[in-house]
Write a structure and sequence with these properties.
Layout lengths: L2 E9 L3 H12 L2 E7 L18 E8 L2 E7 L12 E7 L2 H12 L3 E9 L2 E8 L5 E6 L4
Parallel strand pairs: 1-4, 5-8
Antiparallel strand pairs: 1-5, 2-3, 3-4, 6-7, 7-8
């Protein structure tokens, strides 16, 4: 099993612009990008103008990675949550254990579930006010 920490940046609708900027500014390479419209259940959930917004993207910069998304549903992200920490594992059960441990005394922002972009994902703010996204990535 592996575990890695990745900065996760959530923006207010301009993630594609930010990705282009980081490609030029620091030579970022887009590894993956999924819009809300690419997700099967989204047609009934979001308005047409939100379907082109980024639900999840991963960039490589040198030996490091950054993850991005636009705020879901057009909501505004608090400044304290623009950058969170994504903990990635390659095992759903390990991801769930980490999620459950971090939520103790904290706040669940998104329950741990299977998502179109991950077989196990959840979002939690721990008791110290640090927000973590727990992401399971299964190599294919």
């Amino acid at each position: 099993m592996t575990v890695k920490l990745t900065p996760y940046i959530t923006l207010n609708g301009n993630t594609k612009e930010a990705i282009r900027f980081y490609e030029q500014a620091v030579g970022a390479e887009v590894l993956s990008i999924m819009t809300y419209g690419d997700m099967p259940e989204m047609p009934d959930t979001f308005t047409d103008d939100l379907k082109d917004h980024v639900a999840h993207a991963k960039l490589r910069i040198g030996d490091s990675e950054l993850m991005f998304s636009d705020a879901p549903g057009g909501s505004t992200i608090e400044a304290s949550k623009l950058v969170t920490i994504c903990i990635t594992t390659n095992d759903v059960e390990q991801s769930k254990r980490i999620y459950e441990a971090l939520r103790q005394g904290g706040q669940v922002n998104m329950p741990f579930n299977e998502e179109p972009f991950s077989p196990g994902f959840g979002d939690v703010t721990d008791k110290f006010g640090v927000t973590f996204q727990i992401y399971t990535e299964i190599e294919s």
